[in-house]
Amino acid sequence: MTQEWIRMGKISGGKFYQRLGVKRVINAASWITVAGGSVMPDPVRDAMEDAAHWFVDIHELNREAGRVIARLTGAEAGFVTAGASASMMLQAAAVMTGNDISKVHQLPDTTGMKNEIIIHRVHRVEEDRNYRTAGARLVEIGNSYGAEDWHLEGAISERTAGVAYIFGPRPAGAIPLQRVIEIGQRNRIPVLIDAAAMLPPKENLTRFISMGADMVAFSGGKGIRGPQSTGILCGRRDLIEAAYKSSSPNHDGIGRAAKVCKEEIAGLITALELFVDTDQNAEISRWRVKCERIANGLHGIAGVRVQVTEVQPQWDELTLNYPRVVVSFENAWTGPREDAVIQMLRDGDPRIWVSRAGYYGGIAVVPVNLQDSEEELILRRMREVLRTP
To answer: What's the mean pLDDT in 373-388?
Structure first.
């Protein structure tokens, strides 16, 4: 079967990848950057190709794209950024400089500015460095188990520029977002949300803004399925205007290095419009069918437990926004362990990327990027690997 797929060009990849000798990956690890994010729908690619033929005023393009973003997110304003990481950096810049162009020029030197951003310890992830890139100083609250309201209240000072709230892989224990927003509003402190991977569900596109968040960052290259290097920043008009002053194509701010081209803006806006019109239930059903095919084919292997997890977006955990297959091992299992299985899948033919299921062990097979019939290849290869002595 594998050789047949190679002859059909379904594994080797496009002509460009073949020319470079780069092998295609079957991505069952979700919308991760290192695998290229997502596959853009045809209308998105068409929009980018069309935009590539012409010159425009990028400020005008950003302004009109921002109006679409504002309409679809319910925010006062927005614009396209160079990914959610760039959005986080620009969030920090905005709350530290406001619309003072002299401060925009000064970053990342924050001497004389409010430069502290409060963050839960349980929200400390690699991406929080994006706030520090702008020159902000992070002030931790709580401990590894979580935080209480008084932690946040006690950390607010005359140096506080904002409060960060990150929806990462381990949100448990943080003060509920609504309470953080209430405390922020009472103290006139902006609340900055990193919701990079929180789409789907599409309701999240408007939910955080409707709750009162001041600025929200989304990835454009994950669930929205736009260009991988794009993101969305939306929120209060004054803060979005401040963020834009630090952003490309302006020469003045630290965001000049995070440039977004006209083709990417066209692709992101097209993808966003498609995303809000997607039948979410139908998409979830399609993903679930793929998961069940894999799970059903793995049942009966001694020492292996297989489960299909259901969608539970009410828990605000990115891994619960889609169904997935979780493969774990019982004590009696004598075959290869998790890391070995993951590596064998990556090293095989075809290359298959899966991920760890979480803190409690196991392997996750995520269906959101699987192309037609790829679940059959995954099942075949996993059965081979799990039967390896």
So the answer is: 91
